[in-house]
């Protein structure tokens, strides 16, 4: 096969994907619906869409706080579209900083009560940019082995020494920190909520240890912003360590309900990032409608205590209901709005995923490399806009589909 690609190519560069191509073809050959190419034909609300011609309850989005159809948020986006046009057509450091980008950064500074906020075009770019810019050659990054891909990619881009430790293992983290050579720059990277199993980091202990060894600390709060902590500032707030962390990374693609990423910090020199951080400088800034929806949503999330309460109720009820039905879950107790159902293998996972879709329920099928320990998961993420009745309906769907596929 490699000889057929022409002279001088040195073989088919796609041959490295043969295993995943075979795995996918094998799965689809059994008549299984493709879990990775579902199309939402119409979106009716934060919790309902038409998928494959059928009205479906959404239990696999990151729309935790249900802000995507909030009338104030939608109006802000429409107004910005009319007033400022469809896009900035430029970088933040040239023509791409509009009034709306500054207002969005003001909203973030207020939300976190921090001195500096920098908005990126996605959360992926925020991790890529901040990590690769602050930790370079000769510096050490100590990070949880289950960190998100954007964190790993930021580490690789910066060329620092990367030292992973076992997931959520406080002692292993300390051991790694102890071994860092005297005088080297140190960055500890943690996540508030780990998105595959929905478990929390023991931030109080870990942040204290990082500080003891003189390391800077970056916490990715993508899956907790808006929901966890009294004011929705994340696990750092719930654990009382907000003032001890150096950088919080977040995204607008989850609770905020649009797209974009950010970093907030109290570091006195933080603003220099705007000139030296390549994934901030060398890409176009977010469209004005997006930053307008983000700013409005963030301001509303500051006062969303009732929604946070309802999302906790939904999450705890689903966790308990699925446990009672006999499903194996990623955590013994409900810790976040993510409830991960552990599947014995990909085939069973895909079968239950399809059975649920036919019942009218969408969840995420997650598999390696996204998942830890080679697991296949059906990942459920709740929304503050799911009604009590919907949570009951979801449990009934899981019971029927679980029995039909022999999983319970
Ligand atoms: N960090 C974590 C922990 C995430 O789960 C994600 C997205 N799933 C990101 C960062 C990237 O966010 P975005 O979608 O804004 O690129």
From TrEMBL:
Q: Name one Pfam family in it.
A: Aminotran_1_2
Any one Gene Ontology MF annotation carried by this entry is: transaminase activity
Q: Which UniProt keywords apply?
A: Aminotransferase, Pyridoxal phosphate, Transferase
Annotated transmembrane regions? none
Q: Has keyword Transferase?
A: yes
Record keyword DNA repair present: no
Q: Which cofactor does it need?
A: pyridoxal 5'-phosphate
Which residue ranges does the record assign to the Aminotransferase class I/classII large domain? 56-394
Query: Member of which family?
Result: Belongs to the class-II pyridoxal-phosphate-dependent aminotransferase family.
Q: Which NCBIfam families match?
A: SerpalmtaseAlphaP, SerpalmtaseBetaP
Instruction: Output this protein's name.
Output: Aminotransferase class I/II-fold pyridoxal phosphate-dependent enzyme
């Amino acid at each position: 096969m490699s000889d057929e690609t022409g002279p001088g190519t040195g073989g088919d560069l796609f041959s490295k994907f043969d295993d995943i191509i075979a795995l996918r073809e094998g799965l689809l050959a059994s008549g299984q619906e493709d879990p990775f190419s579902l199309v939402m034909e119409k979106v009716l609300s934060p919790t309902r869409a038409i998928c494959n011609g059928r009205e479906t309850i959404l239990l696999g989005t990151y729309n935790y706080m249900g802000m995507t159809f909030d009338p104030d948020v939608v109006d802000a986006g429409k107004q910005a579209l009319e007033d400022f046009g469809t896009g900035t057509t430029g970088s933040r450091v040239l023509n791409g900083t509009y009034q709306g980008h500054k207002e969005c950064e003001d909203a973030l500074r207020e939300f976190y009560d921090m001195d500096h906020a920098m908005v990126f075009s996605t959360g992926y770019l925020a991790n890529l940019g901040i990590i690769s810019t602050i930790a370079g050659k000769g510096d050490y990054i100590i990070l949880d082995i289950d960190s998100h891909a954007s964190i790993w990619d930021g580490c690789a881009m910066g060329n620092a020494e990367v030292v992973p430790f076992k997931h959520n293992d406080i002692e292993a983290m300390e051991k790694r920190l102890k071994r860092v050579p005297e005088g080297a720059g140190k960055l500890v990277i943690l996540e508030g909520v780990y998105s595959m199993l929905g478990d929390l980091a023991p931030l109080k202990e870990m942040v204290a240890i990082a500080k003891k060894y003189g390391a800077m600390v970056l916490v990715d709060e993508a899956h907790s912003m808006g929901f966890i902590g009294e004011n929705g500032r994340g696990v750092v707030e719930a654990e009382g360590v907000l003032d001890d962390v150096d950088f919080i990374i977040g995204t607008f693609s989850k609770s905020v309900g649009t797209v974009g990423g950010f970093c907030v910090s109290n570091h006195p020199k933080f603003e220099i990032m705007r000139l030296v951080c390549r994934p901030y400088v060398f890409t176009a800034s977010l469209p004005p409608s997006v930053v307008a929806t983000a700013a409005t949503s963030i301001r509303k999330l500051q006062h969303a205590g009732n929604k946070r309460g309802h999302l906790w109720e939904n999450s705890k009820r689903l966790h308990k209901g699925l446990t009672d039905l006999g499903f194996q879950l990623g955590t013994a107790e409900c810790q976040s709005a993510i409830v991960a159902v552990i599947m014995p293998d990909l085939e069973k996972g895909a079968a239950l995923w399809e059975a649920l879709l036919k019942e009218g329920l969408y969840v995420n099928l997650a598999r390696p490399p996204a998942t830890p320990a080679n697991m296949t998961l059906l990942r459920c993420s709740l929304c503050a806009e799911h009604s009590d009745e919907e949570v009951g309906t979801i449990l009934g769907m899981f019971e029927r589909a679980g029995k039909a596929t022999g999983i319970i």
